[in-house]
Amino acid sequence: MTVLQEQEGDTLDAVAARIRSHVVDMCAGPEGGHLGGAFSSADILAALYFSVLNVDPQRPDDPARDRFLLSKGHAAVGLYAALAEKGFFSVGELTGYGRPGSRLMGHPVRAVPGVEMPTGSLGHGLALGCGFALADRYAARDARTFVLLGDGELQEGSVWEAAIAAASLRLDRLVAVVDRNGLQLTGETEGIAPMEPMAERWRSFGWAVRDVDGHDPDGLADHLDAAPWEPGRPSVLIARTVKGQGLPFLAGSSASHYVNLSPRAHARAVRALHTRETTG
Ligand SMILES: Cc1ncc(C[n+]2csc(CCOP(=O)(O)OP(=O)(O)O)c2C)c(N)n1
Ligand SMILES: [Mg+2]
């Protein structure tokens, strides 16, 4: 039986805090996990699943649903936490993450309720999103498709092919979110392949652009709810984030990218999250 986790009167901040807490627990398991990018996108995921997306965990295949694609599929632990909190499967299932027999693996697959496409090889989500948005148009459905991209992922040329296609097809039901945490696997994106001014780049490709604080879930929800922002143009929200946001000893550091927390590090992380929650 599916256990519904959504709690009445929940704030988006509270949901994001629970997502981070589940991620910390999963990253202490045998598989470890991509904590940094899951933490930078936790507020985005909370806003999407608990305010924006028209999805029903009881009807995950409803043709009229909105779609969400985690193009940066390595942040799977964040997605699993959000899906479990939303009620697509039980929160208890998260303890099986990365263990033999579990469907919750290091990268998401379609066997997991709520996962629209398997992702993990970077650079494909936006093109897939174009396909979903086009299919909705042909079927005369007014659903929207949201795609979450990493900022390092933007170095993949296929992202820009998709950006060109979306603009030329006038796919204004397509919304991209860039998790602009400034870090990729091995260091700073601006040191490796500069992308600024990022808003201008997207604008020049024909997209409507907003450049915002990625750790304000209510603000994020307002922007995403309002898309499309310009008729006939796809929308991209550049969400300014911090990789590992929420854990002082990892935040803003490449070391947060992938972690396998020891019992001691796990206890420290739990304490840090608790302190953050109780002191704001
Ligand atoms: C095509 C491809 N190349 C390389 C990788 C390995 N890889 C996994 S995560 C990552 C860094 C991604 O950085 P970013 O997109 O900024 O993600 P975030 O900072 O949100 O974790 C890389 C290179 C991959 N998954 N796919
Ligand atoms: Mg990044």
TrEMBL record:
InterPro entries in UniProt: THDP-binding, Transketolase_N
Swiss-Prot/TrEMBL keywords: Thiamine pyrophosphate
Keyword Lyase attributed: no
Cofactor(s) needed: thiamine diphosphate
Nuclease listed as a keyword: no
A Pfam family reported for this protein in Swiss-Prot or TrEMBL: Transketolase_N
Chain ranges of the Transketolase N-terminal domain: 15-262
Classification via PANTHER family: TRANSKETOLASE N-TERMINAL SECTION-RELATED (PTHR47514:SF1)
Family of this protein: Belongs to the transketolase family.
Protein name listed in UniProt: Transketolase
Organism (species): Streptomyces spiramenti
Organism ancestry: Bacteria, Bacillati, Actinomycetota, Actinomycetes, Kitasatosporales
